[in-house]
Amino acid sequence: MSNKITIELFPAGNGDAILIDFGTELILIDAGFVSTYKKHLKPRLKELHNAGRRLSKFIVTHIDNDHISGAIAFIKANGDAENPSVIGIDEVWFNSYRHLKFDDKEDGTFNDTPPKISINEGNISIDPDHDEQLVSHNQGTSLGSHILKNKYAWNITFKGAAVKADKPKEINLNADIKLTLLGPTQKALDNLADDWYDYLKTVFHGKINEDDFFDDAFEKMMEGRRQADLLEATTNREELVSSTGDWVEDNAVDWKKEDRSPTNGSSITFLIEFAGKKLLFLGDAIPSQVEDQLKKVLVDSEFPLHVDVLKVAHHGAWSNNSPYLIERIRANYYLFSSNGRSHHHPHFETMAWILKKHGTVSTKTFVFNYKQGDRLLEVNKFQMKQKYNYKTIWPDVNEFGIGRDGYVKLILE
Ligand SMILES: [Zn+2]
Description:
8-stranded mixed β-sheet, 6-stranded mixed β-sheet, 11 helices, binds zinc ion, Metallo-beta-lactamase, Chain A, alpha/beta
């Protein structure tokens, strides 16, 4: 048996599209924007299909545009689960509004046909390079409705209920691969439900039902909310501030505050173990929630948790990567998936805390899927790499932007 693990980060703008190949199991995590799917994922998935492969899991971590838009395009194009046009999928993990609990909240009645929700398109995050990426807001375009219509095996590991873990849950993907589900918790899903319910109350005066319409409204409403939260939380700083010439020293500042977005908090997060290697994927999760979950399975002396690969939460945003959480996880490879646009991810604070918290004893490698122009030049400086004992991996693209910016492949053997 080969112990090889291949991780591919696809050009997903400011979002995520990650394919992990364990030789036996093939897992896709999120699918970026529509153009991520059309230009990059589709040809790769077709190639894998032609080689006789199937996706054992397609995990859509949460409902934000930069993770879900390409997923909608993919499932829609793939069509019937029994007769897929791109690649077979054994199971989809995705929490839609159907998986939230509203039982104690149905104090009103939604008898009338709900009015069309007007969605502020200005709130939708898109990659400015690809204007076709904006998903249509018409009825029936949501991921949930496409999964349902095409009869995909949806959350079957959880008997069709929500993908959730109040206590971290071990799931054997096969005899050799163990996945430990860390989140979301029921509480995180309840936060999402509260947000949704408050919104419904203001827009409709009736009962929540299972129409496509509600899937759409849910996904779109949450995206609008999250963008507002994010604008508040981000430092919105594009350029590196380095007064002393040491960007690490200058950015290892005090932590400000935690991201509070219910959508990010609902991210599906998990640790995968295979052939003695550990890979931790945190979606856009909230740091105190990840820390709480880790503390349920590890005692103090077992920290920092040592992993081979960490998909850094929320593209390296400082509000999702507290110095406390960073201290608890030590990785050989830190994956930063973002083109740096919109929110200037990854934030320099996050990278600085990683280097400061773990000292120089072990080499850390920062993996970036986008070059990001000059923005990360300081991070690539030889003197700084020597001083803080880190390396960098960049996409295969030259100074003129020729090559494949946005794509990077990591092979662990
Ligand atoms: Zn994201």
